[in-house]
Input
Amino acid sequence: MPDQPEPIAAPSEGLAFPSVARLELDELLDQLIARATEVKLTQGRLRHLLDATHHITAGHDLDDLVRRIVESARTLVGARHAALAVVQDGRLLRFVQEGTGPGDVTVDGGLPYGDGVLDVPLRAGGVVQGNLVVAESEHDGGFAADDEQLLTALAGAAGIAVENALLLDTARRRERWQAASARLSSDLLSGEIAPEAEVQHLLDTAVDVARAYGAAVTRVTDADPGTAHVVAAAGRLHDWAGRTAASPGSITQAALDADGPVLIADALDDPRTTGVVHRAPEVRSVLAVPLATGTSGPPGRSVLILARTVGDEAFGAVEAEMLLGFAAHATTAIELAQGRRDREAVHVLEEREQLVLSLSEQVVRRVQRVGLALTSSASGVDAGLRDHLLAQVSELDDVVRAVRDTVLPG
Output
């Protein structure tokens, strides 16, 4: 009988690894799991960044956009507080904060600074559009480098969105001013507004389109160059009408000297608006532009002044430019309306003159016919009556000559 093969031994219950090799494998598995968790977390945060970017770019209105940016920043990095200040030409345009508590240290318009704070600028085209700040991380250990990177990426998208919103806002403002200028010119040239109400209508329109607190037109006459007379006022400053103020050193004189717009961000800090603040302490931003000769009254020069109060956005360069054009169009329309009224008055006088000429000629002919009739009758009467009739005829001739000399002198 042939030899039987030896049976194969059954495997042991588990694979046996050297203890060192098994330890290294466990460490590799732990690292792999940690790396996978990190990748998953990173992917999640990137998705949140994309969601936040989409959220802010969905808004076109500046106020809505600023609110969206603050909400997105706070959610993205897990901050308890967030704030955004939007600036343009050195002016604070918008400031929004969310979740700010009483314990925060705030400076520069309410932006918090200090430990546990991330502050990143909003830039577009190399221009700083504002600052985005988050404070007090909801996670242990505070904000990490990843948080700052995410916030910086969000700020990049937000800066472009803010720039686009500002451009859109500027375009809308220009459109409002141009439409208001066209309506005002149409109203003034329609003849439906009385001459004494033209400047008031100009002011009412300017207050409405500029969303101003109030407005006034001041005038410095050649006869009294040291005094500025308020010839009309509108809005919350309507009671200024009829008042006077010293012209030297005033906002009125500044606009006349500059022969262009004068912008004052804070009336409290500028000596040229001391009189304005004295009469209206609530006024802050002031914009003044010189007017052409379209206003009536004694010879002199006029200035259109707009004012905004505490909490309102300060006037900017775009509004100064638009107000200057608006004022130029308005005064031109006033001058054209006055010229049309003058032409209409001349036309009426010419018609009356023609009527007088026609009537006078008819009267002269009738008088002449009476004179001829009297002359004819005088030939058939006695000498005494004939002399009397001829004397009356001579007097009628004198009347005819007097009428013609009066109607057509020379």
